[in-house]
């Protein structure tokens, strides 16, 4: 039986990211103290991946306004991330850190390594300021993700974190009614 990664604490790692035109060290400590998204994808210079990373870039300003940092991760090196950033108009618009994980340590920590290929599944993880994983979503390689839906999930996670005793129903949007679970609600929804 596989133990859920939800509510587990992120494991230690040390890597290098390409960010703002330079290389920067990144560890799990950089994810603490704020909301973070760790966004795994199979490989640079591919097909679905640039559409996802571009979509995330289009939503990055909104995520930043919500106090969220995004970290994309693939098993490529940070050098490959720099080359891709320089050669693709879609990837060139990325403002978030692109972490290289050539050893697969981070990818394995989050349980998304395809061992026989040395590549990551499409995994998205939302981490709270305490370093706990609150959202985990993993897709097969042919299924692209939506950053707009991720924004909604983070809004719900942030709401629940700051409103003790309330939960967000399906398709909840900020400003809509939430639920306060109680015996009085049983069978009435």
TrEMBL record:
One of its GO terms (cellular component) is cytosol. It is an enzyme of class 1 (oxidoreductase). One of its GO terms (molecular function) is thioredoxin peroxidase activity. It catalyses: a hydroperoxide + NADH + H(+) = an alcohol + NAD(+) + H2O. PROSITE patterns: THIOREDOXIN_2. Pfam families: 1-cysPrx_C (PF10417), AhpC-TSA (PF00578). Its EC number is 1.11.1.26. InterPro entries: AhpC (IPR017559), AhpC/TSA (IPR000866), Peroxiredoxin (IPR050217), Peroxiredoxin_AhpC-typ (IPR024706), Peroxiredoxin_C (IPR019479), Thioredoxin-like_sf (IPR036249), Thioredoxin_domain (IPR013766). Keywords: Antioxidant, Cytoplasm, Disulfide bond, Oxidoreductase, Peroxidase, Redox-active center. The active site is at 49 (cysteine sulfenic acid (-soh) intermediate). One of its GO terms (biological process) is hydrogen peroxide catabolic process. Its main location: cytoplasm. It is found in: Cytoplasm. Residues 4-159 form the Thioredoxin domain. The keyword Oxidoreductase applies. Homodimer; disulfide-linked, upon oxidation. 5 homodimers assemble to form a ring-like decamer. Thiol-specific peroxidase that catalyzes the reduction of hydrogen peroxide and organic hydroperoxides to water and alcohols, respectively. Plays a role in cell protection against oxidative stress by detoxifying peroxides. NCBIfam families: AhpC. Belongs to the peroxiredoxin family. AhpC/Prx1 subfamily. This is Alkyl hydroperoxide reductase C.
């Amino acid at each position: 039986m596989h133990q859920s990664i939800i509510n587990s604490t992120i494991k230690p790692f040390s890597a290098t990211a390409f960010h703002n035109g330079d290389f920067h060290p990144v560890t799990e400590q950089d994810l603490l103290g704020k909301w973070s998204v760790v966004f795994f994808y199979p490989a640079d210079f591919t097909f679905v991946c640039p559409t996802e990373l571009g979509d995330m870039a289009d939503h990055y300003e909104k995520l930043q306004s919500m106090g969220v940092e995004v970290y994309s991760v693939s098993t490529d090196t940070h050098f490959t991330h720099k080359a891709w950033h320089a050669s693709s108009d879609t990837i060139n618009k990325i403002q978030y850190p692109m972490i290289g994980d050539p050893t697969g340590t981070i990818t394995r920590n989050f349980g998304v390594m395809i061992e026989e290929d040395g590549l990551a599944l499409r995994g998205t993880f939302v981490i709270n300021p305490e370093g706990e994983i609150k959202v985990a979503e993993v897709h097969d390689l042919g299924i692209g993700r939506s950053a707009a839906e991720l924004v909604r999930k983070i809004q719900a996670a942030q709401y629940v974190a700051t409103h003790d005793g309330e939960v967000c129903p399906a398709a909840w949007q900020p400003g809509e009614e939430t639920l306060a679970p109680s015996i009085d609600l049983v069978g009435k929804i």
